[in-house]
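Q: I'm building a small set of examples for a reading group on sequence design. Run inverse folding on the following structure and report the sequence directly after it, with nothing in between.
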């Protein structure tokens, strides 16, 4: 199989804490004048260009910066319909409470497989065009046995990181029959979805009439775990609550949103840093006019964090990790290095993946290139489309 060497890398951010000769300040594993050799879709060599081995083909990236492809560890890409009017209403002060999810559920149920597949394909392409090389995709707009299973079947055509979110909200036809819906989610729906899912998730939010309580969430997550799925939780998005505590208690890989955290929640996340990643989704706070999560407090306490898009029709219809990074630095006071690592190795950790998120030998050759000499331009040039995924086959378009 052909090997390709990428040269002309003015700055390589590997995220690899062990890379020999790299500048490890801020844990970036940064190398100037670097080269990367790719073979069979994997990284075969990383180091200073002056020491690079020979390869079959060579591609000069022309003095640009190369970073790990973004790992977007939280998205809801399988939906039809439009809720832009809900966004506009929020900008005038209307609060988000999850009620609009029902609108997306009816549009999604009404869409054909082909229409849904085309919508997901377009959104995944949009992400890739902005530097994302791995995306986790949740169901959650089907909310019937058939519609959840087909959402996951379609999601699995695009990613191995698929998440069953039957417990997104109680659908309208189950109004007043919550426990019957939880029985369905943990019974027939779970069985139909397990073949197409790696994870299970639940929207645990005591402040929304639409979402699930601590007890309901525990039942859903335990059933998912029993069926072999890994755990993720939507928690503490709309107010303080039990979601973070529950996620840590159950050893979830990721607890997402974390917008409202008590001192106890922060301590728990710090103590669970090896197991549970706090996944922050600042595009949601932007699009719902909410306060941003206290990322500094989490980092300073020693918690593990990730940054992801949460791309969905309600709380954030943005697929852009560069946008999320800009918010994290400008609004949440992360350093550029902290933000970049949270959207690469942080996302990988939340998916319990070691083969992505870091540029090192043996990992997947997921390389993102910037039309700029340093990763700092990602933040410095916010809003400018300077990011693109480097084709592992070696074709380097401009
Ligand atoms: O992550 N909070 C729950 N679920 C999504 C939003 C879903 C929607 O409003 O369509 C979220 O924010
Ligand atoms: Fe979400």
């Amino acid at each position: 199989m052909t090997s390709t060497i990428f040269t002309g890398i003015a700055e390589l951010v590997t995220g690899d804490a062990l890379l020999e000769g790299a500048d490890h300040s801020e844990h970036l594993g940064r190398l100037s004048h670097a080269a990367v050799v790719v073979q069979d879709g994997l990284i075969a060599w990383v180091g200073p260009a002056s020491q690079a081995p020979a390869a079959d083909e060579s591609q000069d990236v022309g003095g640009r910066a190369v970073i790990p492809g973004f790992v977007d560890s939280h998205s809801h890409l399988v939906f039809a319909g439009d809720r832009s009017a809900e966004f506009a209403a929020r900008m005038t002060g209307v609060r988000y409470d999850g009620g609009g999810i029902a609108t997306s559920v009816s549009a999604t149920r009404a869409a054909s497989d082909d229409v849904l597949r085309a919508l997901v394909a377009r959104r995944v392409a949009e992400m890739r065009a902005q530097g994302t090389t791995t995306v986790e995709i949740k169901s959650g707009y089907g909310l019937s046995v058939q519609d959840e299973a087909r959402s996951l079947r379609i999601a699995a055509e695009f990613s191995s990181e698929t998440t069953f979110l039957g417990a997104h909200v109680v659908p309208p036809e189950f109004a007043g029959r919550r426990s019957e819906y939880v029985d369905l989610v943990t019974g027939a729906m779970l069985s139909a979805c397990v073949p197409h899912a790696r994870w299970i998730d639940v929207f645990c939010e005591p402040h929304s009439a639409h979402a699930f309580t601590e007890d309901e969430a525990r039942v859903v997550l335990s059933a998912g775990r029993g069926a072999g799925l890994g755990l993720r939780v939507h928690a503490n998005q709309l107010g303080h609550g039990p979601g973070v505590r529950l996620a840590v208690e159950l050893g979830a890989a990721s607890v997402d949103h974390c917008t409202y955290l008590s001192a106890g929640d922060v301590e728990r996340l710090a103590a669970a840093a090896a197991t549970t990643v706090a996944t922050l989704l600042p595009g949601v706070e932007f699009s719902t006019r909410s306060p941003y999560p206290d990322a500094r407090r989490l980092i300073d306490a020693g918690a593990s964090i990730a940054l992801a898009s949460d791309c969905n029709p309600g709380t954030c219809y943005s697929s852009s990790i560069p946008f999320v990074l800009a918010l994290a630095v400008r609004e949440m006071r992360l350093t550029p290095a902290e933000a970049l690592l949270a959207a690469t190795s942080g996302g990988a950790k939340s998916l319990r993946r070691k083969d992505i998120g870091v540029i090192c030998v043996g990992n997947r050759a997921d390389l993102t290139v910037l039309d700029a000499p340093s990763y700092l331009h990602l933040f410095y040039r916010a809003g400018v489309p300077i990011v693109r995924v480097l084709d592992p086959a070696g074709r380097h378009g401009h």
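The longest helix spans residues 113-128.
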